[in-house]
Amino acid sequence: xxxxxAQAGDKRERILAAAERIFARHGFFAAKVxxxxxxxxxxxxxxxxxxxxxxxxxxxxxxxxxxxxNAALRTAVAKVKGPPIDQLRxxxxxxxxxxxxxPAAAEVLTIELRQSSKFMKEYENPEFADFLRTLGGxxxxxxxxxxxxxxxxxxxxxxxxxxxxxxxxxxxxLTKQPLGGNxxxxxxKKFDIVRAADWVIxxxxxxxxxxxxx
Amino acid sequence: xxxxxAQAGDKRERILAAAERIFARHGFFAAKVxxxxxxxxxxxxxxxxxxxxxxxxxxxxxxxxxxxxNAALRTAVAKVKGPPIDQLRxxxxxxxxxxxxxPAAAEVLTIELRQSSKFMKEYENPEFADFLRTLGGxxxxxxxxxxxxxxxxxxxxxxxxxxxxxxxxxxxxLTKQPLGGNxxxxxxKKFDIVRAADWVIxxxxxxxxxxxxx
Amino acid sequence: xxxxxAQAGDKRERILAAAERIFARHGFFAAKVxxxxxxxxxxxxxxxxxxxxxxxxxxxxxxxxxxxxNAALRTAVAKVKGPPIDQLRxxxxxxxxxxxxxPAAAEVLTIELRQSSKFMKEYENPEFADFLRTLGGxxxxxxxxxxxxxxxxxxxxxxxxxxxxxxxxxxxxLTKQPLGGNxxxxxxKKFDIVRAADWVIxxxxxxxxxxxxx
Amino acid sequence: xxxxxAQAGDKRERILAAAERIFARHGFFAAKVxxxxxxxxxxxxxxxxxxxxxxxxxxxxxxxxxxxxNAALRTAVAKVKGPPIDQLRxxxxxxxxxxxxxPAAAEVLTIELRQSSKFMKEYENPEFADFLRTLGGxxxxxxxxxxxxxxxxxxxxxxxxxxxxxxxxxxxxLTKQPLGGNxxxxxxKKFDIVRAADWVIxxxxxxxxxxxxx
DNA sequence: GATGAATGAGGCTTCATTCAT
DNA sequence: GATGAATGAAGCCTCATTCAT
Lengths: 214, 214, 214, 214
Fold this sequence. Notes:
4 copies of one chain form a homotetramer. Chain A is mainly alpha-helical. Chain A folds into 2 domains: 1-51, Arc Repressor Mutant, subunit A (Orthogonal Bundle), CATH 1.10.10; 53-204, Tetracycline Repressor, domain 2 (Orthogonal Bundle), CATH 1.10.357.10. The first copy, chain A, contains 10 helices and no strands. Chain A is elongated. Chain A starts with a helix and ends in a 10-residue tail after the last helix. Mean pLDDT of chain A is 86; it is low at 1-6 and 209-214. Chains in contact: A-B, C-D. At the A-B interface, α6, α7, α9 and α10 of A face α6, α7, α9 and α10 of B. Chain B binds a DNA duplex through α1 and α3.
């Protein structure tokens, strides 16, 4: 029974995970619902027991993943006792670490979120708003301490920082790293996405940032 | 005669302009070729005299607009005699000014470019590569002068800056500014996209940047 | 239940039968897939659950019908105990009887097979090859017995005989016989396609063939 | 002037010749009018100065080629002073020689005539009727002499013979002869279409036919 | 007469969604 | 709940034909 209901409860998750992979692979529009079903190991119709329609599947995926991202960020930031700029660094590093660990999720959040901003506007996007609010708060605090230029509206600065992270994620995700070393500069080398966190901090902070690396 | 031949030569341009508006309005996938044709005032089949298919229409639109953007940027930057950071500011300001003046183009370049990174990878994107190369050059020069942190690979910094611009453009474009004043904070206020250029510069430059506003 | 499962299993057959009628009526190219669907009493999309595309529908129809023809011919010939020329007569008579009984099938096999020889070449046509092989075997046996001129390569003779049958079928099928008597020579009279079997035999056999008519 | 008008008069012929090649290459339905125009070296619209529409182009091609065929056959047969069976042999041999010399024409007459029997019925086909009448006359004469079985209605026998010729032509035309010798039986060898004339005669004549080969 | 850019009707096909089992 | 065969709306694209030059 427990196993059964667990499997049943799992089904929604399995579908979301499948959708993540399929959307990452083909893009939302090119992806077929039946492909998601196949990847999830369920029948086409089953998807409609858990989601209203294809759009809802994408929306739900966003909400779900952004929720996880926000939770991870909150947890990580809460642990930092140092000044706001260090919390910001942690925020950024954690985000990019997630991108590194979950490239499919990153691809969906980055590319598909973007392309579907169109219909995201209609559905609103509370989790993303939350993300920006948190980031804006960290920025404002860092501005108070004089670590970031205070002349910039913090919500705009938050947007800018998100833009950097998003673009880094995109560039990193789209660079298909050949297994092993890469042939003499044939393709752009896949840079270290996690290290990039420090680059972001050093780009935007006015002082030489205190390093607290592993 | 002049009118006629101008119109004839214009037809490709008219279709591109129509596609720009339609794609900006509905998004690439939701847009119908027949809508583009109607907007351009031509028959459906006429589109296929100038473009191989719907994809090619999008690709061509990118190339064309990015070419214009690059040309405008080159011209604007060439006029600046000051230090690299001032050239960079001009680059950024010009870019955001273009976003401001051509919101439809910005929407397509920003949203649709993103969502179609998928198939942009296949078609390559020489003009965008050019854009990044120019930006990277300016960054490197500014780094040499000590105006931007030199520890960041310039091509990564260029990506980050582009990310900021892109996100600013996106946020600005998607905020439907109600004509006239906006109802008490109901919607996020449409910030001044052009002024944002200075914010970008002040965010990333290590010294108080010299203002050279109009 | 029986009816239902029968119908379900039948669906492919129903579509083939509908295609046969529609193709015979309008010709392959002029026929619309949606007409076939309507004739079969299914939705347009259903066709594509059973066939890859319109071409595949035609190909499958050929294969299916030729298979039936070959089976009928084999059965009929196997019953004949007489000399090869009698088997050959049975082969021919059976074929023309099928044409008589299934004019739509005949029309498709005769006309559309021909017109699509173009793309039949690409798909091969094993059943037709089988048909020719069987016919060639009978011819060779009859040549051994001296009933047919032995100087002709048997596979070429088989082709010739098929050509006669095909042309007879075509001429017969295309002659729209008005019901009842025909107006004084206005239209070519629809000859007796089954009797024509004997004419074929008497045309090609060197001796007065033994008649074994009904 | 003469040259000019000759060229102008030629244009219709050039278009017919182009249509013959294009139809033979792609089939009537798959062939595009613009391809015919390109092959003929004229503009698309020019075709419509000489032909009512695409169908008319095919019809005219038939008429024209069948006329030439009939003329050639009449001339050849008129030279033969021997018995009807020899005239018949000449008729057949001449026809197959034409197939050999003009494979494109043969392909159109054979394949496209067949597939378009559909709309040929509507347009009638006087030249083909003429062909059959001539052939029927020769058959009847040969029957009178006892060289061909007299029990067969001569117009049906004519059909049969035409069927043989048509099928031989088709088989021969569709066998893409590999340049040079052919790999050990990989493809059916391209038989000698002209020699096949004698095979036809020996298949249908009751006596050992007098050979009058070159 | 000749051109060929433009037209636009119409078909093949896809795929999100439903619903009988 | 789960299935997956069936549906049918809708869009991309082709290409025969026209007509202004």
